[in-house]
Design brief:
With 255 residues, the chain is mainly α. It has two domains: 1-100; 104-255, no CATH class. It is built from ten helices and no strands. It has helices at 3-25, 33-41, 61-67, 82-100, 104-127, 132-149, 152-177, 184-197, 202-222, 235-252. Helix 5 packs antiparallel against helix 6 (132-149).
């Protein structure tokens, strides 16, 4: 990969990371998908302290955050490093994917799926909900990639079995405990992961996400951060386990 291509990958990844950060910040469960889309476009980015509209070059934390030392150009109010870190993570991800995957279809699939799963995890962590449009986009992305690679049968069965499995678990939990244990967003996300990975990978995703969730609960309880019945979103753990499975399966054809 040439130096120019590496620069384009980093710049494009940084722009994508900036968009994902903005999409997370401007999401609200009260917004419809259309309203969320409008909120992404208007109004322009501004400082939360002085309400001054940011210059276009200041909306790219990958460049502006270290240059302005993490502060507003106008009132010098400090900005968090979350957007800066997100941009760098996505930029590095894009560079590594383009270096590791020679097939353009695989590279586009990994980058798009990673972006959707990152956004799903961030939104579910903050709002305890998974937007349907993100799950549907991931579902159709998986079906499209499976069609290109000739694995559409496994993808279709993966989507169906993924949704039905979590629905059955949620129904059983509700009958035993008398309250909800899994949301419909988790079911749709698991179905989308089934479309991306095929039905064979679903047990590994379920085991991996459950292990991560249990380990996180134990760690947070020992530190006194959460109590015994404190709610914890399951979407981020599904997203992490699903992302690892997608990357490994696409790269090494393990499943």
């Amino acid at each position: 990969m040439s130096l120019f291509t590496q620069f384009i990958a980093l710049a494009g990844g940084g722009a994508l990371g900036s968009f994902l950060s903005l999409a997370c910040v401007r999401f609200s469960p009260a917004l419809s998908p259309a309203q969320w889309f409008v909120a992404l476009c208007f109004p322009g980015s501004r400082c939360d302290c002085c309400q001054q509209h940011l210059l276009w070059r200041d909306t790219l934390p990958l460049i502006s955050w270290p240059w302005l030392r993490g502060r507003c150009r106008f009132c010098h109010h400090p900005f968090g490093a979350k957007s800066f870190i997100t941009e760098w993570l996505v930029a590095i991800l894009c560079l590594l994917v383009l270096q590791s995957f020679t097939d353009p279809a695989d590279a586009i699939f990994i980058i798009t799926a990673s972006s959707l799963l990152l956004l799903v995890a961030a939104i579910d962590r903050h709002h305890f909900c998974i937007p349907d449009p993100l799950s549907y986009l991931l579902l159709w992305l998986g079906l499209l990639h499976a069609t290109v690679t000739g694995n559409e049968t496994a993808a279709i069965w993966g989507a169906l079995s993924g949704y039905c499995t979590l629905w059955l678990l949620a129904w059983s939990y509700r009958q035993v405990r008398g309250h909800e244990g899994l949301g419909y967003g988790d079911m749709k996300l698991f179905a989308a992961l089934g479309a991306c990975c095929g039905w064979q990978a679903l047990p590994w995703i379920a085991l991996g996400s459950t292990f991560l969730a249990l380990a996180t609960i134990v760690m947070l309880q020992r530190r006194g951060i959460i109590q015994g019945k404190s709610p914890l979103p399951f979407g981020p753990f599904l997203a992490i386990a699903g992302w690892v499975t997608i990357v490994l399966q696409t790269r090494f054809t393990l499943l």
